[in-house]
Design brief:
about 45% helix; 12 strands; disordered N terminus; 6-stranded mixed beta sheet; 6-stranded parallel beta sheet; alpha/beta
Length: about 350
Amino acid sequence: MSEINSKNADIVAVAKAARVSISTVSRSFNHPELVKPATRKKIDTAVRKLGYIRNRAAQTMHGIRSGTIGLVVPTIDHAIFAEVIQAFSDAVEGHGFTILVASHGYNLEREYSVLRKFLEHRVDGVALIGLDHSDETYNLVKRQGIPAITVWNYDAQSVLPCVGADNRQAGAIAAQHVVDLGHRKVALVFPPTKDNDRARDRLTGAQSVLETAGVQTPDGASIETLYSISDAKRVVTEMLNNAPALTAILCGNDVLAVGALYAARQCGLRVPHDISIIGIGDFKGSKEMEPALTTVRLPARRIGHLAGEQLAQSIVQQSKDTTRTSCEIELVDRQTCSTPRQTTL
């Protein structure tokens, strides 16, 4: 009983309680993949019983892994990043890692500061969202020699290993769908593209398809707005009041598409009878909307899982991973797009 109540339970006490060697306990913490699940369970039971806590600071001074991975995201306000974070966390947890999460609010200077703090805490690896990062951030990762990966956007020429989708293709797929339906007056509603390669690539892909098809984007109908339903509703309402001949709105993500849907209703327009709306992402809830949102599905959970697995493996195996993985995307045709009414052309 005295051992259980001790505030100074050490690794020797854990080994004794679990009836394994000290080296096995250490291995279970630092390389859990090398220890049998049954043995790990016995060690975990002993750790919980004794209230044992490792001294991470002492371990990192001796070159032992901290067991943490830093994940820097633009925002945690929206479901799409929550899905990525959860899948990433589940994947690395299977290799004995815990994630530290921070957001930078689409500010690359702030991202650099967050990354520095993570490295000061001796994280074993870092994951960044997208491909747009400051030169200082890329230089810091390179000079520190830390395993790193970029998540969400795929580029065959990316500086760091990446797992993601071809966002230019996503924009092109969305645009091709409205073109194939017969729309010729299409609005574009996107997040700010500065320092956001995902939004920029989707916009570029959409514009390329529309231009090739000879589709007109009327004056004032190509707008940027914050990643917010309320802001999207406001700017789209203004746009619809000034450009009533529009037949379709192509949005850079589902959040903006929801705002556009609310704006259309506020303006007395029926979706899709009077105006069609398409998003990109297929976020949680897009299928359950009324009407259900037509969108381009980006496999957020698969991207997060594969990124977590790849980064964890590169840390455990101490390899310089250069893998670049592209995840498939697809059109999800639901209820917010249809052929345009002839009277609006």
